[in-house]
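User: Here's a chain of 91 residues. Predict its fold as C-alpha cells.
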Amino acid sequence: MSDSNILILLRDKNEKGLSDLYDKYSSALFGVISRIIYDGSVAEDILSQTMLKAWNKIETYDENKSSLFTWLATIARNTSIDKKRLNRYYL
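Assistant: Prediction complete.
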C-alpha cells in the first residue's frame, strides 16, 4: 500500500490505515528504536506508542515537509530518548 493511501485511511480514522502503517514500517521503526533502547520488550512498547502517537497526531503530518517514514522515525526516536531519560531519572 502506498503512503498516500495509508494517509487517507489514517486521516479518516480507519483502523486499516493503522494496520497498513504497522505492516509497512514496523520493522524499520523497530530498528530505529533498538539503536537507542536495548531491551526488546521496552522497544516493542515504544513501537506501539509510536504507532498510537501517529494515529492520534496524523493531522500534524505535512507531506510537504518530510516523508511519512521520516516523520514516524522522528516520533520513534524522540519517544525512545524520552524513555531513556526517564529511566535515568528514576535510577
